[in-house]
Amino acid sequence: MPTEATRRAFAACLAAAAVVGFAGGAVIGSQGGDAAPDGSSRTGAPDDASTGGEEPPDSGITLAADPTTLPPRGIVTFSGTIAPAEAGIQVKLQHRVGEGEWTDFPNADTPIAPVSRADGTFGGFVSPEQLGPNSYRVVQVDDESRVSNEVEITVAE
């Protein structure tokens, strides 16, 4: 039977894996190529109706997520576009629960910050743990007035 220390160590490993997984996905996603992880090609902006996103503001940044409902520590794939398309634009992922404050995810010291490809796309992965609705968005790092639409992810047991 696992001890409390073993359970805590396992939980810490899962949290670290989630951060590394998203950051790795962001780095891999920011490398060249137009193929999605499933091998299909990416075209245009994400379809907000099928990905849980709200109508995007006029910032030129869109964000989508799949799936939008999952169990704790499930994997969510984020993808987005920046218009006009430009390589090297860095965005940071932000998170909030309910009507709380937006905070850099996972924290202000080490936000997840993917970089756009030449076609303006970016992406990565995250593993949310907070039960209930979780909202995510991205903000352009060097121009925080450019904010994407919000995407709501529901974490349910």
UniProtKB/TrEMBL annotation:
Residues 28-70, 102-132 are annotated as: Disordered. The keyword Signal applies. Residues 1-23 form the signal peptide. Keywords: Signal. This is Bacterial spore germination immunoglobulin-like domain-containing protein. It comes from Jiangella asiatica. The lineage of its organism: Bacteria, Bacillati, Actinomycetota, Actinomycetes, Jiangellales.
